[in-house]
Amino acid sequence: MMEFNIEEYLNSLPNDVEIIDVLNKNLEYLPDLSRFKSLNKLYCDFNKLTSLPVLPESLIYLSCRINKLTSLPILPKNLQALGCSDNQLTSLPILPESLIYLYCCNNQLTSLTVLPKNLIELYCSNNKLKSLPILPESLKELFCYNNGLTSLPVLNKFVLFNFNYNPIHKIIYGDIYFDDYDFNILNKNIETWNNFRHLYYCLKYKKRFLKIMEPIIKKKYHPSYLYNLTEDDDLDEILNKW
């Protein structure tokens, strides 16, 4: 079988090509893609890529699963779907607000960046996540099993949801695993656990917090501050901030 030449292949494509598919070509690199101003979809899964070139701004779908990527470039502002599972990623770049689908399972992610407000599907299982960011109300599917999650944010009632094999799951349910959850009960359990965590750390670091905050509090709320108030200042509002 003739070896696939990525340079020759890309040179054979017109500038206005909308889809590039180089799945399973044993590639170790991708050349510059900047001339493809109309590129909408890029498929480069099942290769040996360790990095990606600068991505065209026109891109709306990127699938780079099952490679050796350790990082991703800046993502195009109109990207709607990102599939980067089964790589060696330790972090993700800033996610564009346009993103709807995010699949980043089987990496080495320790945290997730802020999630776009219109995200519908988030698959982040088999990573090293200790917590999740605030989840958008639009989210319908969340798969975050087999991580190191010790807490969860407030959850919507998802169509599909799985957080099995996380410390937080064992705390709430023990060794019982579910395919379906009563979200009212689950959220109450999560809220109770989060309150206990908050109380624990407040008590554990109380002296340290006081030591740090005491000079700031004294300076900001010293009685002499009252002398600097004008007649137009809302005293009730100021006191509420105390």
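Next protein, fold it too.
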Amino acid sequence: SSNKMLSHLFLVFCLTGPTDAKITQTPNVVQKRGQSAQLTCRQTDNHNSMYWYQQQQGKGLQLIYYSVAVDNEEKGDIKEGFTVSRPKIDIFDLNISSVQTEHSAVYFCASSLDTVLQSHLLPLQKPPSFPLHSLRESSSSHLHI
């Protein structure tokens, strides 16, 4: 039934960019609404900086979280409903504690060297929501409710 269909979360993941992209994300996941979901991201370039962005339909990119080092987690523009983990330099996982309709969006994981992004910023400032073309590598996840 349509109600049953609406009660499930469909995560459809696809890789964007060149076929040799150095970022990979979780394969397909199906979760019930209200349950937790994890989007995993791995990169092979040993970049210090990693990012998670959300892009809802018809809107621009919003920075959810970023990390400039192992065990470092910095909040971006979206404050509620997400947590991240950076246990190793190549891993940056995004967690949604309770999946809701408003989480329907495209999620981009990206990495870059931190020279341009951090060197000129004061400690309490966050990097701007810069376009993806300024990032070395990126891939995307489609999250459909």
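About the second fold: The two ends are 15 Å apart (CA to CA).
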